[in-house]
Amino acid sequence: ERISRNLRPGVLDELGLVAVLGDTGAEFAKRTGVAVKLVCVELAARLPADTELALYRIFQEALHNVEQRARARHVLVQLKLPGDTVQLTITDDGIGFNKVKPAAGRKRNDSLDLLGMSERASYVGGTLKIKSRRTGTEIEVRIPLPSRATAANLTDL
Predict the structure, then answer these.
(1) Which residue, 54, 21, 15, 51, is CA-closest to 37?
(2) Closest CA relative to residue 67, chosen from 36, 39, 43
(3) If you write DSSP's letter for every residue of 55-87 in order, what string do you get?
(4) Do residues 78 and 88 touch, judged by C-beta distance below 8 A?
(5) Strands 127-133 and 85-92
(6) How many angstroms separate the CA atoms of 60 and 63, rounded?
(7) Distance between CA 118 and CA 120 in Å, rounded?
(8) CB of 85 within 8 A of CB of 145?
(9) Whole-Å CA distances, 123 to 27, 55, 120
């Protein structure tokens, strides 16, 4: 787990989180036929590298879950900066799931996928919330950002 956490795609370094989310979402939509809409705030500076990586990996895992299990037709991805945090919300219109007791035919590793996403968020000091209903699932990741003083040291875009 620690090794995979450290593997950072070069494209993330080159293009930044927003561009990579867009590219990954577009590739996913093309491959699966599931529409992906990306709504991102404009980032004045790059986020810390470990935060970008955590958000990207959680996004990948969420799309994997949508493809494997959700039977969704639409995914909405929102990146916001409320206060001193970055928030990534991924919402699908699929069949949802029961977090407590998996439905018949569901694999046990569903809960491992969610645990992995939660661990990625907590590794960078963040939280992951999952709301699932019959009309879809919402995954919300919130990660605190460095204080304004440290933010000045973030690499400019």
Answers:
(1) 21
(2) 36
(3) HHHHHHHHHHHIIIII--SEEEEEEE--TTEEE
(4) yes
(5) unpaired
(6) 5
(7) 5
(8) yes
(9) 28, 11, 5
Rounded Cα–Cα distance for residues 113 and 139 (Å): 12
pTM listed for this prediction: 0.83
Provide, for the chain, the percentages of residues in helix, strand and coil under a 3-state DSSP scheme, each rounded to the nearest 5: 45, 25, 30
- Both tokens of residue 24? 């990954």
Report the length, in residues, of the chain.
Answer: 157
Per-residue pLDDT reduced to its tens digit, 31-89: 999 999 999 998 888 999 999 999 999 999 999 999 998 999 999 999 999 999 999 99
Give me the numbers of helices (H) and strands (E) for the chain, helices first please: 6, 5
Nearest to 55 by CA among 78, 32, 73: 78
Tokens of 63: 């799309």
Q: How many CB atoms lie within 10 A of CB 45?
A: 14
Cβ-in-10-Å burial (0-12, 13-18, 19+) of 78 comes to: middle
